[in-house]
Design a protein that fits this description.
Blueprint (H helix, E strand, L loop, with lengths): L2 H6 L2 H7 L4 H13 L1 H21 L5 H21 L2 H13 L8 H70 L3 E8 L7 E7 L4 E5 L10 E9 L2 E7 L10 E5 L5 E8 L9 E7 L8
Antiparallel strand pairs: 1-2, 1-8, 2-3, 3-6, 4-5, 4-7, 7-8
Helix pairs in contact: 2-4, 3-4, 5-7
Length: 289
Amino acid sequence: MDIQAYISSGIIENYVLGATTPEENAEIERLAQEYPEIQQEIEANKHALLAYVLDFAEEPPADIRDKVLSKLDQLADEEETDDDNFAIEKEIANIQEAPSRQLFPFKTYMVAASFVLLVASFSANIYFYSQWQQTKDNLNVALLDKQMMANTLKTQTTKQSQVLDQVKEELAILKSPAIASVKLASVDGAPSCSAKIYWDTKTKYVYIDASKLPEPPKNKQYQLWYIDGKNTVDAGVFDMGKKSGHLQKLKLVPNAQAFAVTLEKMGGVPKSEGDLYALGKMENETREN
């Protein structure tokens, strides 16, 4: 038996509120003896309902009282209509003989009293059950908000940790004695721009800081090239936007005398087809800070 599914069905709340059938009561009580979790849930609901009533006790809506009083008046009218003149005279005689006797038969009052208790009990059950459900809904919303806040905090913490790791990695690259750097300046005819290249002469990987390049047109992408003697070789494409402010790792560069940035179609090309934007030559020094 799936205990949690049974508890989540709401039948235990109905049982505590008195809104279950005798058959359901018998089943719940039997299961409570067999499964401690169900018994604990029953006790928890009883305590929660009691705490709620004590904390938020208020009279049931006034229309419940009006309905009960109206029903009592109806019962009295029906009793009077059903009596014939003989019965009325007899009742008057009985009253004269025994003034302490009530106007209506005892049975009528019993029926009325039973009806009052039934309506009051049913109305109270509905009233408190609705209040209990509202309290549970409010609690669920609060728990959901708390979970969402926890998830948001966890996500933010993860992102911050990732950013911190990236910054540490970039600092390690910049401080490495194996790094040679070169500044790329805009060429004649191109928009004013620049870029910074960091080439790891040990691992041979090249990194680019593209923060000072303009955003490319739609369906276009910047591509880095390295010049080795007379050969111009693809060094990879790179992204703009938020990534442009960070070092982006591109391809291996075995040897290079200069680097260039061109604007190509999205995804890059094996041989340059676009406009040249920036160019820079390697200095004799191994690095530039």
